[in-house]
Amino acid sequence: MGGQFLVIDGTDQSILDNFADINGPAILFPFVREIIASLTARAGIPTVLVQPLNFVDMAQRRQQSQPSE
């Protein structure tokens, strides 16, 4: 699954990075969860329920684990 988002010219790179790391995935993730649950239920196998993710926490942990420049 993918998403298309518009970018306004002149948008600061840090805002775009934040959106790409946190907001974009957070917007798309509920739809991905629903598709996975629906497909597995319709396939006749036990429904797969993907747990919610905290994208803010994931981004913070990734930043902490990267060496400083």
TrEMBL record:
PANTHER family: PROTEIN-EXPORT PROTEIN SECB, PTHR36918. One of its GO terms (molecular function) is unfolded protein binding. InterPro entries: SecB, SecB-like_sf. Belongs to the SecB family. It comes from the Bacteria. The keyword Nucleotide-binding does not apply. This is Protein-export chaperone SecB. The keyword Calcium does not apply. Keywords: Protein transport, Translocation, Transport. GO terms for biological process: protein tetramerization; protein transport.
